[in-house]
Each structure stands twice: as structure tokens, then as C-alpha cells.
Amino acid sequence: MEKIRDIMTTDVETCSLLDNIYEVAVKMKDLNVGAIPVVDNGKLVGMITDRDIVLRCIAEKNPPSSKVEEVMSRQLVTVTPESSTREAAQLMAKNQIRRLPVVEGDKLAGIVSLGDFAVRQLTDDQAKEALSEISEQHGQQHH
């Protein structure tokens, strides 16, 4: 069975606790991503998503100069490089997330996204099913 280390991206754009929300929003736009890991001294401490920015910054009328630390999600769902691709796909479907940080201990080692699975020839039916579920549910949210 394929391991996450075989498909993960190791060159990960991150942000810090003190970055401001405007900078992170620009980074998301430039990278065309909806989630960025938050790292403090190499340690993964959170994730910030476009949804976090909308709900905890804009909807709360906080300024774009707000710090990442005030807006980020601290509840982390992670995998290790040794996790199976099947396990990761199931976690992503269960938690409705498209980008999953890969950690070794508490250090960020990489990230795996739905796209990383899409470009692989997945032979595991459960992984395919999990990915189609998250894609379908994501699509339904925009109606």
C-alpha cells in the first residue's frame, strides 16, 4: 500500500503566528490554495483556512491586520509520512478537508492535498470512494 511520503509535497508554503490576515489572504490567492499551515519555530501549531478568515475575521468585523494566531484553527488533523494513502483519504473525507499536514513528531514535514491523490492511479476503492465523497459534498456547499 502506498505511503503518504510517496505523494506528499515537501516544499510547503507556511505562515507564522504573527503574520497578518491580509498577507495570508494574498498568499492563498497567489498559491491558489484555501489552507496554509501555521508554523512556529518549525513546529506545526495550526492551520489557517479561507473559511477561518471569513468567519473569524471578516464576519467578526476584525481588521485585515489581525494576526494569524487570532483567526487560525488549532484543532489539527494530521498524518505522518508513514501513514497509508487510504488512511489519509479516509481522514480527509471524514473531516471534510482538502489539505492534510504531514508531521514527524510536532514538526511539519509536508502536506498532502486532494490533488496529490487525483494525479496518482489509486487502486484502492475505499480511497477513491472517500475522495469522491468529499468532492461531492464540497460541490453541494456552493449551491
Automatic annotation (TrEMBL):
Gene3D superfamilies: CBS-domain. Transmembrane segments: none annotated. The lineage of its organism: Bacteria, Bacillati, Bacillota, Bacilli, Bacillales. Signal peptide: none annotated. This is Inosine-5'-monophosphate dehydrogenase related protein. It comes from Bacillus methanolicus PB1. InterPro entries: CBS_dom (IPR000644), CBS_dom_sf (IPR046342), Diverse_CBS-Domain (IPR051257). Residues 8-65, 72-129 form the CBS domain. Keywords: CBS domain.
